[in-house]
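Researcher: Please generate the 3D structure of the following complex. Treat every line as part of one assembly.
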Amino acid sequence: MRHSNGNPSKRRDQAVLYREWRANRSLYGIALLATLSPYLLTFMTNSLSQPAYSRYVGNYIVGQFSVIAFVVAAGLGIAVMWHDRIGDHLADVLEGPVSRRQFIWAKIRWSGLTLMVPGVIMALWVSVLCFAIGRPQAIGAVLLRDFWLTSGALAIAMTSLAMASAMGSLLFAAAGTAVWPLLPVLAGSVYLSMVYSSTRPGHGLSQRAMIRANQTWAMIQHFSPFAPTVPFQHGSIFGYGVEYVAMAAVFGYAAMTWWHRAESERMRDPMVFPFLWNLYYAALALLTGGMGAAIVMHFYYQSSVSPLPLYVFWSIFALGGWFFWRWAHLWIGRRTTLRWGPGVR
Amino acid sequence: MTAAISAHGVTKTFRGRPVLKNIDWSVTAGHIHGLIGANGAGKTTLLRLALGVLRPNQGSLTVAGESVGQDSAQMRQRVHYVASSHQMAGGFRTGEWVRYASLLYDRWDSERINRLLKALELSPGAAIGQLSTGQQISLKLAIAIAARPDVMLLDEPTNGLDVVVKRQILQLIIDMAASEGTTIVMATHNIQDVERMADSVSVLYEGRMVLTQDVDAMKQYVNCLQVVLPGGWPDSLDKDSRIIQVKRRGQVALVTIQGDARAVESLFIGAGATMVEPIPMDLTDVFAAILKKEGYSRETLEWESI
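Model: Done. Output below.
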């Protein structure tokens, strides 16, 4: 007897979702429980240190515990892709009547659900608590923080899915996932170290210059979900939440597009798309530029706090670094047996 | 006759290394077709191109009436691929994987899969990761058969199977082709299987399609003669392009010839042969002779030479 139940397209979609759940259910389950931990740890900490019931509701999910949710989200995207890659399990799916987009879309939906369910549950729970203790005015702040945490986790999970779609090396996918959300933190740190290293020993920055530098540093850091305490110091939580939603949308789209376009024979390469090596060189060039400029400014340029020479040196080192790292990787791929870089034959 | 698969000028390179070179290939609908070639000849690559998993650098393929394109998921409703080299996904039970397949395939036959699982002694509760190689291949084939494809691409389907399971599976494939008109393409090293089952056969050598013919015609493509030449091997025959290989022991020579043996017999008689006798060749001998003609130069390992 042949079956003919329902819309074939809808049924296939159910099949892909079913397979995704069966194959990776333990990973999604662990991630869901781990995502609850920032809420639970915050409650526990506050209930010990702050006896006033209303105060711990108000402070809920503040602080360093939110990093746990972000690290879990980063691991989730990579883990659900890698679990399917191990032992050629991917072949079972991709050699069947499943499109690449269906495959990755199922992962996006399960990941999104896994990360959002704890946020929704806790938002409802804390809202009820706020009413119960007679502080309904606290609900708005609680929901905003919840939105910030959930959207941040979602953005990182989509980033890691995108990286795992475009990189066939676990190391590269993990590094890529860490670098993108951390880029604002890294950029802020590079900026600050360059500014401070450009001052002469015993002649620090003026008060005004220091304030300006610190404000710029804080502003740059704001864009990273891995700078969890910053939004609460400077307000604008909703704005950062919106930024993370946009980041999730962009990287979710990138994951679908990259996975759709990836050539099967390149799926085990560190970079599935050769052009992505340029981003890798750019990251190395950024670091090379920062380090080179800091060293030069510290030893040879001590008479001014003007940032212009700093930028000039940084640009020279970064540009030189880009070409150097590109040349080095091509050379390694072509001339050695390390099978590393775009020059591998 | 309609072609179930046709390839025109297909070229595939991996990192600049050509794996398939300008392949023109056609498989008649409803045929069991053997795809044979030495290791690294490009058999698996050709099947995966036909499935739409790999994309050609040049050329085009049409399978089951559809052009193989960027995302051939819909085509794979009617084209099924079974490879013995892939382990099946762990974390599933047999029944769960069957449920997944039942949701996936539009032409799924539930009654047929139940009968197949019973006949192949596959328990729905068994964990796939615990199944033997033979059981995994049996499960893959059972799913392929229940999905009722128009074209089935089999990549070394009998690797790692014991004799009993192998016979059972090959018989299933033959019956499926006969009763449903399914086109079967079987890439294999096992030429005896091809000889037993196939209607037609193709030979790949170093990425080139050397030959595509009916099995009976292919057996006639190469012939072997045992010749007794008391006066020794005549130099005049050295440059005859029809002679593929000569093995001499004293006055006796085993001569492999491309084409009709009778046309060459008279040459030997004219050269003083006292006996010219045709030697029967199976498909394995024919395949070896074709490889030899194409330049495959692996030395024969003889006991005396060790």
